[in-house]
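Lecture 7, part 2: worked example. A protein chain together with adenosine-5'-triphosphate.
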Amino acid sequence: MVTDTRYVWVQRSAVVLAAFSIAALQATVPLERVNWHFVLPRLFYVAILFSAVHDGWRGGLITAGLCSGLILSLKQTDTTLHHAMESVVFCFVGTGTGILTERLNAAYQKIQETSEAMKRAERLSAIGQLSAGLAHEIRNPLASIAGAAQILGRAPALDEKQSRCVTIIGQECTRLDRLLTTFLNFARPRPPKMGQAALEPLLENVAALAEYRIGRRGITIERRQQGKIPSLYCDPEQLEQVLLNLLINAVEASPDGAAVILEAGADRRNVWIRVRDEGSGVAPGDIDKLFDPFFTTKENGTGLGLPVAHQIVGQMHGWLDARRNPGKGMTFSVHLPLQRKGV
Ligand SMILES: Nc1ncnc2c1ncn2[C@@H]1O[C@H](COP(=O)(O)OP(=O)(O)OP(=O)(O)O)[C@@H](O)[C@H]1O
Ligand SMILES: [Mg+2]
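Predicted complex, written out as structure tokens:
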């Protein structure tokens, strides 16, 4: 569908102009010229089909109505019944083509989304297989380096510079180990341990954990709930991990003193949990990369937080999406089915 509103209005005006031109032409052709009177009303179909394809069934129906009005207003009395019947066909063709086009567009969009998801899954699997082995191999020597640094650090003869170097080695080993653990969790995720869990205490817990990460930045986490939420069938530990990742991202993107909203609700089929912030947001061109492994704009980011979250929610038969807020910041939403599905 066309989204540029200026272009849409130019198109609509062109259709209206074309319809009026056809009617004006028909009004000037004498009734004896039967062939012309057969051909000209057929031209209205071009305008009707064009509107239906671009504006859906509403566009098709409105243009069909306009063309019917024009054709009937010609007041060529001997053909009024014929024109009235033609008007019915106009409406039928306009609405039918519009509905068909809308369905085709929806199917095309779904195919595109599925193909994107498949491409991502293939990429993840290739990266996962290649690097998981490597990460595993790095971990053992890393543990030896950390152990050796610890032993060195205990030596009494170290001067200040030497002991600072030993501390740096220890800290960097811890950082690398954390990165490798996150990566291995991502590359070889553990299957979820599904069970029934109440959402409220889980959200309370996650909010408390995230507040711990805020420090002195004055950011508040506001909890909101729409209606009563039934207990969820999920892996509570993994869901906490997902929400904590989203909250930490939101806090990191927010300016000091801002609010981050943690909101939950349910409809008939799904429970949704949203994390909304008023932070820096994501550039429009980057929105499709958010769930790609290693996409990060942070100096010390791994770019694995969101891909891991996406993967975990998928394993629980739910989905995670990201939207830019109309004003400022981002909203990430986790959707989980209420009905128990086989895992
Ligand atoms: N709420 C948000 N607002 C703005 N940008 C965001 C938000 N959440 C994620 N992002 C963008 O998405 C990128 C990827 O996020 P992800 O959580 O996967 O990794 P990271 O946060 O960079 O690293 P890590 O999670 O290891 O700290 C971030 O670097 C940031 O650019
Ligand atoms: Mg993150």
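The pocket of magnesium ion (ligand 2) is lined by residues 245, 248-249, 305 (CB under 6 Å). The first strand starts at residue 195 and ends at 197. Keep this in mind for problem set question 3.
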